[in-house]
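Marked as duplicate of an earlier ticket. Keeping the data here for the record.
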Amino acid sequence: MTWSRALKEAARSGLTIERAKLTPLIAIRGTVGVAVVLGLCLWWGSPALAVSSAFGAFSAGIATFQRSMRPRPVLALAVAGALAVSTFLGYLAAAHLVAFVLLLTGWTFLAGLAWAIGPVSGLIGTQTVAIMLITVTLPTSVLGALAHAALIAFGGLVQATLVVLFPVRPWGIQRDALADALAAEADYARRLRHDPVAPFDPAPLMDARLASAVTPRQAKRRPVQLHGPRGLAERVRPVLASLADPVVGAPLEGPERDRARELLGAAATVLDAVAHAVRHDRPVRLPPEAMAALEVPATGPMLTGPARRSAYRLISLLADAVELTDEPVEATRPTTEAERAHLLRPSVPKLVPVALRALRRESRWSSHVFRHALRVAAVAATGYVLATALRFGHGYWAPLAAVMVMRPDFAQTYSRGVARFAGTLVGVAVAGALMALAHPGAYVSAALALACVFLMYLLMRTGFSVTSACVAGYVVFLLGIVGAGWEQTVQERVVLTLIGGVLAMLSYALFPAWETPRLRDRLADWLTTNGRYALAVLDGYARPAERRPRQVREALLDARAARAAWEASEARAEKEPVRHRGLSLPAARAASAALATMGRVTMIVEAHPPDRNAAPSPGAAAFAAALGPALDRAARALRDGTPLDWSAPQETWEQWNAEGEHTGVAVRACELLLDALDDLAEALPPDP
């Protein structure tokens, strides 16, 4: 992609306004939190104090809207604590330009590294930089700094208290995540009716797993509907794939295929009904047609072999899903010991070593997060010094605009930069016009600022340009409380936002962290984890008595994580103005399809495990022994750009098939596995 096209795509993405589900009750609750802090400070304190203290509640309210599985009060308190610390440190160094620039640089660098922990942590870090730049413009003493920091923390405490006192749709995020996973499987079942080898994106299942992790306190109050369906969804997916597959399931044509389509359609109906029940806290309602389709016909089962086993397993799992979901939502039970050991969400103090390991893992020159931290720290310091030298009244807006738009990848930084400037232009124009025509007093300006806060909370998911317009209006009205002239505010905000956006975009152009050169490494990681998953499944055939489902499960989770990392890298690389450097995007897509097929075939084998008392399969053991070294060599060849060689496992499979096991599920699926690996080799021509 050329630079001109990349910039056009980024601008179009930044200015896009999306249709999103609005949550007015949550927006009202967040606005009330800001109103409480603002009103109390106007009543008991001063307008200047009200302006600075309102940012704590405002930022804490933003945190409660983030897609995080942690409790909303915890997020609000975490933001409030971080903002209070950054405010206090900023006040201590504000009187000395050099000291403040050094503090700003170091703090912004740490905030940039916070993206290594997760997107919510990165957003919180960005907000701490913003509060450090804004609130320190008010001169005060050390005791005054402590008071300001306490007010910032009080704003977060107010938001957390409101979340506890006025809960809106408790467990809503967890319910949506689980319902999305079930609905995705329903859609998968429908697509399998027409395409027996249709792909499936495991992202909804990954989100549902993240949502199912709870703290010990949450485990005592979690509704029944959020306990069992996720595990059933994980087990239903391979059964659906094995029933539909024309090689190990129902034949491609004939009565058995018609019966398979009927079962897949009924499964889709049941899964949709369960998803609806989970999402809306209601009992499951099933049409009679679906119930009838899941019964064994009077003429007999109609399916034979592995397809028959898959059909019976599917009917049993769907019945369990309905039974587990169709219970009173108020009833609760503690999590089992297995769930507690595997899906317990660590407390905030226990996250510290996890966060430190993430920071240490990303503290290397090649890391895009580390380079982002260096980039944003340099831009924040440069923007602050430049704005100070230009002697604008609110010079902090330049570094603030830069920090708020910068992200670790190119596309988001550029699209947010365009959206920030466009939104700011609209916001200050509308707010400035209102200030010029109405000349509102302090309390009216506060009411208008709260209206902007409500609109921002309500429209937060529609696009960054919309939220930028609301924030710009909020700042204009907020500064109107202390009597700042609207003419100066509008001019400064537009000019300094433009300067900050230009600095952010130039920084990425001069010091990039492109994702395109890392595509081969990401693909090799996915191949390696897919291989471990396949070897773990084959080990169950080679040694049935020692079969370890936990090992297979962990290998599957690693493969899903590697696939998610690859897809994120590929999506970022598509938007970068960089040559492919050895792996073109068409080749990347073909390779991705081959590895997705490899995972699907392995999943089908997993759906037909042998009994523990079954005889070991020498062919499966030999094939796994040949496949393991071949995968290691292929991963190295993929990174180096050399040809991939699958001759050793191919020869082993041919011998295995010739020994008379050609009717088994494992040997037939391994043939499909080799076909997928051959497709991978064809999709990746060696470097010239």
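See parent ticket for discussion. Confidence is low (pLDDT under 50) at residues 327-342.
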